[in-house]
Every structure is written in C-alpha cells, then in structure tokens.
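Much of our argument rests on the idea that a fold can be written as discrete symbols. Part of our work consisted of pairing the sequence of a single chain with a tokenised description of its backbone. The amino acid sequence and the backbone structure tokens for this protein are reproduced below.
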Amino acid sequence: MDLKVREQDGVRIFEVMGEVTALTADELKRTIGGSISGGSKKVIVDLDSADQVDSAGLTAFISIFKTARSENARFVIVCGKFAIRQVFDLTRLDKVLEIYPNLEEAMAQV
C-alpha cells in the first residue's frame, strides 16, 4: 500500500494505492488517525486507486472513524470501485461511514 497526502481547500486528502489488508491496515490507521489526532479536522480517504480492502482494512476504517468522532473531525471515504464499495455494503459499514462515489461529492460534504 502506498499513500499520497495532499491538502485541498483546507481538507487533507489521503489517496490509497494498492491493498489495504492485514499487512498494511495498521500503517493506514496510524497515519490517518495520527493526522486527525494531530489537528486535521477535515479528512478524506480516496480509495479509487486501491485494489483491495479486507476485514483488517475495514477495522482500520472503523478505528479512524472513532478517532475522528472523538476529535470532532470530519472523516469521509471516496469509493467509486464497485468491488471495494461492495465490501462496505455487505458488512453494512456504509450505514456507519460516510462513503461517496467521487472526490467532488466528498469535498462538498466535508
């Protein structure tokens, strides 16, 4: 997994490339959760360049969500890939996490 980080209009955007699995989920959680704990109040995770998200990845997103909630930060996910979005839908995490089909919609909501 690789992460690209950029700022746009006061929003920190993390572009995830590769796989979010048991091997990489802790790094994702530390990096994004640490950014939120460090003061980022608007965060988008863009999964459009991700190849896979497994159960460990889902657990990392729940942890990041909890960190954001405790820090009064906005945390949303961009996921336009059907196969990855289906993982969130099947586990009903789409009812807990804010997930948008593209970056433009996500930016409008943070």
Summary: The chain has a mean pLDDT of 97. The chain has four helices and five strands. Helices lie at 25-37, 55-70, 82-90, 103-109.
